[in-house]
Structures are given as structure tokens and as C-alpha cells.
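Colleagues,

Please find the record for the two-part complex below.
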Amino acid sequence: MKNNVVRTDNELVKYIKEVGESNFKKCFQCGTCSAVCPLSTEDRPFPRKEMILAGWGMKEQLASDLDPWLCYYCGECSKNCPRKAEPGELMMSLRRFLISAYDWTGISKILYKSKYAEYIAILIVAIGVLIEWAVLFGLHPAAGATLGNAVSPDKIDYFFDWPITVFLGVMLTSFIYNMFRKTVLSDKNIKIPLKLYFTEAWSLMFNFFTQYRYAKCDDSGEQVSKKLADGKYNFWLTHLFLMISYVVLFVGIVFFLDWFQSENSMPYLHIILFDYFASIGLIFGTVYFVIKRLTKKIERSKFSHHTDWMFVILLFLTAVSGVLLRAAIVYNFTVSSVFYIYLIHLMILFPMLVIEVPFSKWSHLAYRPVAIYFANLKEKAKSLNNVEIS
Amino acid sequence: MDNNLGIYICSGCDIGKSLNVERLVNTAKDSNKPVVCISHDFLCGPEGLNLIKTDISEKKINKLVIAACSMRAKQDVFNFDPLTIHTERVNLREHVIWISPSNDNNTQLLAEDYVNMGASRAKKAAFPEPLIQDLNKTVLVVGGGVTGLNAAINSVKAGYNVVLVEKKSNLGGFPYSKYKKWETVPPFDKNIWIKEGLDQLINSVENSEKIKIYKNSKIKSVSGAPGKFNVEIEASAEDNKAEAATETIGSIVVATGWKPYEAKKLDYLGYGLTPDILTNVELEEFYSELSDKGKSDSFGVVRKSNGDKVKSIAFIQCAGSRDENHLPYCSTVCCMSSLKEAALIRKNNPEANVYIIYKDIRTPGEYENFYRKMQDDEGIFMVKGAISEVSYDKGNNIIDIKVKDTLFGGDIDLNVEMLVLASGMVPNSGDDVLNQEINLNSNSAQSASGASCPPSIPVSTAQVAKSGLLNLTYRQGKEMPDLAYGFPDSNFICFPYESRRTGIYPAGSVRMPLDTVFSVDDAKGAVLKAIQCVEQTSKGKAVHPRSNDTTYPFFDLPRCTQCKRCTEECPFGAIDEDEKGTPKYNPERCRRCGVCMGACPVRIISFKNYSPDIVASMIKSLYIPEDPTDENYRILVFACENDAYPALDILGLNKINLSSNIRVIPVRCLGSINNVWYADALSKGIDGILLLGCKFGDDYQCHFVKGSELASYRMGNLKETLTRLVLEEERVRQIQLEFTDYMKLPEIVEDFVNKIKSLGPNPYKGF
């Protein structure tokens, strides 16, 4: 068989070094990382494979690699690495690399490389929101106007919510298609039958809503109840709670904004209750992760990239300003104070949505389940092919 | 000579509790008729020692038998002038009471035998007459590279004159021609490359009044012995300006370094396909050329084929090294030098990709820090793998390297513009003489030795004849014998720097593959050895391993049959021959192992305190019971003093029981065992003979290199004798023992005793 000629890329090695704190070049390929990894399989021997690909800067192979998304950073590899090469952190860096690889605009790459670029980007979006707001509603509420007049929910819907929904939809879809092209279509050895796309769709939904692979990060074989009592599922459950909260609030705000702006504290009991819990979820989750990142006691939170901080902070501020806004409305603050709180909330929310969701850390919300879905597709197709051959 | 024997039996350390000391004193008196025979309960204490000293001065005791602890213990206490008093140590503690049951008749018999053996040896032993001479103490350093320069300067620092011979026109050796070398001071992590160091050293060597330098010169011949080597120096072939000279030399440090492995033999790695495939040494030369002999610091590395800047370059490590078909060993420097080269390329061509394909990266000790630094460079890519093919695509001017069994889990292909083969070091230890010449030599040697003497050198010890380096005028050949792969024979662990030519000490990469950092220390080590040699020799004392021994073998030449066994078998080439084959002994070259004594079929070689006759009388002094019961079997053990005897001591320290059937005679080396002793022992009625000696073979541990192997070889001749006597050949057995094998001793002895018991008693018992 003819080997593929190896192409190495110094620049890529440098980039991966910059977007994380892994010493992956220190790897001498002993394989301990993959041996201790609870999720790694024979077909997907990560993170060892990635240590090699990254160390040698093999761009094509890295861009077509789904494995970084299948890793949930339990940190066993980093703990056991004899060279302290931090394979777990490399997988994190590679997820950052992959986000920038799927992003055809090139924005992610810049945001990951430089924290100043990220600050500036956030500032630009916030100012954009301010200008748009000023155009729509002015810089002061009109004297004597009701909240409905001063900040019309319809206008918010038309000029903020729906455009952002469309923008995020288009961006993420195109990025995911790019990912599909690089990771699935590029693999000429595998032909995926159309039927599989539908039969495997359950895995997409299942993993999106459960993040079940987190649970597999602990393969100690203890009783589920014991693991639960020992707090081994805390990170997973908090992460899940945070993600569900986000999705609920996003859907709520985009489609049911009227209810949020209603002065009645409980217009539709089930919705509002759900959203109240979601707000708690966001605040609890972000605080939990900030504490983890500050204490650095677990492998997952040992290293924090500027995008990690930016993400939790923006999310936390969004939630806090959102709760404040809701309180202001329910407790009948003056229209002008609600007006300003609303503006501030949007100036936080939109940078979070515009920057974090497609171009930065938040995009893993989409990529992780999609990657599992793609991986399942490839695996199933491969086993089908094998059956046909035999 | 008066033989005033004094036997002193110590009853301390529980000897008195385990033995009937009174009975021991009485039997010693009866058998040996000493002037004094007493026991004392603390012989090594001031009172006991005073007792002995008083007897020496008042009763003129000159033959002391001290039956106490091992000869390896209390050497500082029982320390009497060896030139006037013979001190015989009988080991009642480690070899009797600590390994045998207390107050047992067999233990008592064992102790009595040992005292009698000691007494008979003491009676026969004469006093050594050391050969004290005023000798030349100049150190000859051969080779002016890093090792040679350091050897020279350190000899001077220690107060010795030096003659330095260098074949080239400049000092400095290989590193001098290099562009830059890696750091020479730990922790090697600064990632810098240095050029300094050598010039200063060369200057101080050249300006030293005590160093006489011959450049463009080589050695025509070395004759003589330590302290009086006669060294002829002549101009090296290329240069006729240098004049011939003769120097008298004390000892020699050989620092001739290495030469690169022949690149032509690396054609299987693509050498010769394109000028872009070069060896590591050629890359160093290329660097030197690009940098204008190190004057310029910024230059790009270009392809030799077209002069373009190199964008990708691969290093193949162990090119022809650690490979049975080429150099089977690791040259130790190639990993560091390739890493250094890679770093230099990255500095000069920052966009270049550098690949290093290795079997193992060997950067021992703190060199690891340098490896780690280099590993972290984003443009250096390393992988373990084996090269399956190197091909050259002429059209694209690209070298294709196929690598198999990589740690990436498969095969990879690399396309590079340049390829460096990191090939190994070959020691400059002389050139092989053509085979034909050797055959001629050995034929003539055989015909001269006559039909009655079979060739006495075992086949495995035959050496490839060499010449061209020291050109010794020794009977055994012109150069230091090799151990393997052309490196001089020495035991790396037990006695580094030693060669099999006394007074000649290899150092640096001619001894073993070493880099410049390690060569500096190596030079110091060898110089200390060289100084030790001239100082010891001038006092008539032996060098390692029988340091301070003042005895010499005496050759009773009128009885010599010119069989040449001693001249062939001497591990150190100490004995030359005249035309008739009569041995010409050089005492200064001798290490006093006694291999010649063991070799001599007519027993004309003896030491003052160690001879066929002395050991024979020790054997004769043994009491051999005739009643064939189990406990009456007698096994004679010849134990090598270097490892086997200490192993028995350690067994004693651990109080592990050993059969009481054995009687141990320590020997200088198993190679000093004369076959006559077997006959003496067997005719005396000894049932079996066990030889405990060092491991032999490629990784030998024999302190005299070939002694234990020779003993084994000579036993082949013995077997015929045994068969003639209708004795089973199994009655003599040789065991190779390491010092640390002491725990195996009970089993070894038990096994042999059982074997002898199964053969039955010696039929000659009682004759």
C-alpha cells in the first residue's frame, strides 16, 4: 500500500500552542494517555493520535478529526502523562482549532489568538446594539410613555431577536456543513447510505439533551447512586442544567418575548416557571464554573483560556441583567430605568450571542452532538461496508 | 633463611565457643613444629597484637600464621613488614565457624586442616624482593584532541612531564574543525551552541614548558616496559617536515579518538544518491564551510545540489549503528549532535521542517534537558521508526524516506530536500593487519613450538592482529588487544582505562564512544592511572588489581623447554621471547596474576610466596580420612581471591551453612592453577576438585582477563590425564561465579558434593 506523504506545518503547531497550554510537543508517544482514557476506543485512539497529529502539525488530518469533540476532558490522560504533556488540554486546544477550522469567515481564528481582538469584537457588537437601539427607541424614553411604547416588543422581535436567530442559524448551519465536508465527506473510504442519516438522528437529539458522554468519563464501575453521592456527576449535571437553561431561555426570548415583557409576574405559569428555573440554572451554572476555574482543583478547570473566561462572564452578566430587567418590569420600576436596564441587558446579550455562539466557545453546543452524530454515521457505515465485503 | 614459625589462634568472635581451641593448638603444634603456638581471645586487640610483636622481636618469628578472621579483614592490624615477615592468614571465622555447625567434629577437622595448610604455606614461603628502580616518569600522550589535550595538561598539573604526539599539523582534534558544539556545562538547557574552550586549552598546552609536542608525527615503535618505554617518533606520511626522534617514556595515555564509520557502507540509506544525502560529519564540515570556518554566525543552510535554502531536512539516527551488520554499538554522541544540528538549522532557516527518525533518543543524564528543549521546537518533528527505504526522485530533486513501524502506529512517507545520516564512531585503535599475515605468523609459531605442545591459546581469545598506532615490539602483537568492535580490551565497570598492556591507558573515544564533555573526565582518569603506574612500578609494586604486590614470577630458565605457553598466555603481554622461544620476562609489565605459572608444564615459574610447590605442600598437609563415610569425602576448592573468596566471606557473614567436606585454597587467579595440583590432590586422595572463578567470555569478569577461561581450557588437557588414571572427569568442575552470587554457593557445593558421592570415593585414597 502506498503511504501518504506526511505534510507538516510549523505554523499550525505554533497556533495550537498559542490557543491552549498543552505541552504536546513533549510527547514521546508512549500511549499512556489513550490507555487510561475511559472514552478512547481502538478505532479512535485519542488523545494519543491527536498528540502526534498536533506535534507534527498535520493540518488535513487534524481538520478532519472528530475525536476532540468526543473527549470530555476528565483529565486522566494529563494526570498520568509521564512527560506532563497535558494531552487533555491539547484536546481542548484542538476544539478551539476546530472551531476556527469550521469557521470560513476566519473570525474565530483571530478571536482565539488574541484576547484584545475578542474585547474589541465584543465592544463593536455592543456599540452596534446601542446605535440600533438609539435609532429604534432613542436614547431616552419619551416622557410619559408606557413601557410598551418606549420599548416595543414587536420592534425588539423584528430588529433584534429574529435577525439574530437568522444570523446564528445561517452561521451555524454553514459551519456545520463545513464540518460535515471536512470530517465526513472528505473520507473517501466511507459512503454513508441516506437512510442512516435518519436512523442515526436519535443520537444527535439524545446527546444534545443528555450530554451522556460526560457520565462515561468515569469508568470506575461503581454504582450510579454512589457516584452521584460522591459528586462524580456534579460537573455533568451542572453543565447539563446550564445548557438546558440556555436553550429554554433562548427559545423563550425569541418566540415568547411578549410574556417576558408582561407586567404580570406569572402570565403563563408553566412558561414563566420554566424560565425562572432557567435563570437560576444560568446563574448557578456560571458561578459554579467560575469557582472551578478559580480553584483549578480539577483537571478540566486547570487551564482557562481568555475565551473561557469571556464566555462564562458574558453568560453570567446576561443572566443577571435579564433577571434584573424582569424584576424591574414586574415590580413596576420607572419606565426610564427599565429602558436603560433593557438597553444594558441587550448590550451584554448580543455580544454573547453574536461572538460566542458561532465564533467562540458556545459553538460547542452545536458541534459536540453533531460530532457524535457524524462519528456514529461513519462507524455504522463502516460496519455496513464491512458486512457487504464479507 | 630462618623459618621461625609462629601460630596464633584467635578465640574471639565466637571462635572459642565453636571450636575446641585447645585441641586446635595441640594439633597445630604436632603437625607443624612451630616456635610459638598459642591461642588468644582477642588477637586483634592491643594485647594480642603486642603478644605477636613481642614474639617477633624476642623469638625472631618471621613466619606468622594468624588463624582468626578472613584475610580481607583487619588488614590494617595484622600489618607486618612483608619483606621480613610472612603473614599467613587462616580464615577460621568466615570460612569455618560461620558456615559450619558449632562444636562438631567435622568443623574441628576443617579448622585443623586450614591451620595446617596455612602453616605449610608459611614455612615454604620466601620473602619478596621488590625491584626498586629509578624509572622515567614522563607521560606520553598519543593524540592531541580533547582527550589528549586534557590528559597532557592534567599530567603537568600533577607534576609530570609530557610528550604529546599528534598526527595532524594542529592540535584540537575533531571538535576543532566543528562549527559549534553544544553546551559543556550542565544543565544543558540554555539551548546555546558554543565555539570557545579549545583555543585556550590548546594555548596552555602549547605554552607549557613541561609538554613536548610532536605535530605531524606518529609513533614508529614502542619497546620496553613501563618506566622505560623506548618510543620512536616519526613524521606522519603526509608531512616530511617533522623530524624523527626517540623518547624515553614512563607510561602512555592513548587518546587517538575515533574516525567516522565508512559512509560508503551506508548506501542502503541512500548515501551516494545525491549530494543532498550526507553524513553527520559531512554536515559538520559543510557548516564549517558555510560559516567561513566559524567566523560568520548568520548564514542559511543551503542544498548541496542546487544552492537553494533548505526547507525540509531529515536526520536518520543510528545510521549503521546498533546494527549487527555495521556497528553493533551505540556511539552515544549522534543523538545530541543531531539535535544540535536540528537546532542550528531551525535558527538559520526558521521556516524549515526538521525530521528526526530514531531508534531511541539517547540523551543520558542532564542531556535530557537539551532533548526536551529541542522537542518543544515547533519545527522539529521526531518519531521512532525504522527506515524501510530511501529513494531519490531526480525529476523533483526530492528525497523520499519510507519509515516503517513508527510509533504513529503505521508506516509514513517523508519527502525532504536534505537527508543527514547520523553515523557512528569507529575507534582509532590501529588498522587491521591482513589475514594472510596472521596465518603466516601463527604457522611459524606452531612449527617452532614443536609437536609436543598443542596450541595453548583458546580459539576465542585469538585476536585480529593490528598495527599502525603504537607499533609495540611485544611478542603478542603490535597493538593493545581488542575486547570487541575494535575497542581496547578492558573491563569497563571494574577497571576502566586499563588495557591489556601495562602502562598503556586508553582514554576518550578510542576507549568507548564518548563526547567531548565526558572525554575531559576520561582524560583525567587515564592520567591518574598512568601516574599510578610509574610510581608503583618504580617502587617495585604491582598496579591494579594486585596493587602493592611486590612479588614477581621467577623463571628457572635452564629447565625451560621453550614451549611458549607462558609467552602466549600472559594476558598482559609481559613476556617476550628470544629467537629460540625462551621467555624474556619484563617485570615492569607484569601484573603478578600467575597465569604463566599455571601455564608452565615443567613448573619452572614460581613466586616467592606462591608456587606449584607451595600449593602442593598445602595439599599434602591435609588430613584425608580413609573411612569412606559421607562426612569423610574431601573436596578441594580453588577459589579466586578476587570474587569467589569474598563471596565465601559474605556467605559467612550471612551465617549460611556450607558443606564441611570442602577445603578452600585461595588462588591469585584460576589461570594460575597449575595442572600438577590436580594430580597432587587426586593422588593424595581428594575426592573432587571444584574451581570457583570469574565469568569468562565476551562479558568476562576475570580481573586478569583470560585467567578463568584459560583454566577452563586447560581442563580439557586434564581430562585425558584423568581418563588415563581411570578417574571420572566429573571429579573436577569449574563454576563461574560473580561476587553477588554468594547465595548460590551452598547449592553449588552441595550439588558437587552429591555428584562426587555418587561417583564414590577416590580409589587412590590411602595409597
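Chain A has 21 helices and no strands.

Comments are welcome before we finalize the supplementary table.
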